[in-house]
Structure to design on (156 residues):
């Protein structure tokens, strides 16, 4: 069975598709009412990697600083997702950022068993690096316009 965290980890370690990592956990985080601080922390971690790879060091370090601030609050959920929190905290001090996740032994074994079955990405390196520029934003824009109209109607 694939969970959002398994999908995130495979995308992170097999494809280095940090943008998609963000998308996978964002959806799960939203579906859970934005309650899972572990997901929020891992989303921030993927964002930091995405910025770093694009050469936005300031953005990456800002994301890391924000993550370090919330790490204590997210520790229980992160551990529940199979993250070794002590190692994760140390990894946040490294530059460049590590390219593997600090998983506990059981979760690491599960991921390593799944890696050979995970399909390679069809994206080019440029598409991975600048993925936000290639996505279809139509649903997001449509939803924002719908919400704006709803707010306008509520004010009348």
């Amino acid at each position: 069975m694939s969970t959002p965290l398994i999908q995130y980890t495979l995308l992170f370690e097999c494809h280095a598709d940090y943008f998609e990592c963000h998308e996978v956990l964002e959806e799960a985080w939203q579906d859970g009412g934005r309650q899972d601080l572990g997901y929020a922390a891992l989303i921030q971690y993927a964002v930091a990697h995405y910025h770093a790879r694009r050469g936005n060091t300031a953005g990456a370090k800002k994301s890391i600083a924000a993550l370090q601030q919330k790490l204590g609050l997210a520790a229980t959920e992160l551990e529940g997702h199979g993250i070794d929190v002590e190692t994760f905290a140390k990894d946040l001090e490294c530059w460049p950022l590590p390219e593997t996740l600090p998983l506990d032994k059981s979760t690491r074994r599960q991921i390593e068993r799944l890696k050979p079955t995970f399909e390679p990405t069809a994206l080019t390196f440029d598409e991975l690096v600048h993925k936000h520029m290639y996505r279809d934003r139509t649903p997001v824009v449509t939803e924002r316009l719908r919400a704006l109209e709803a707010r306008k109607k509520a004010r009348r």
Q: What stands out?
A: The mean pLDDT is 92.
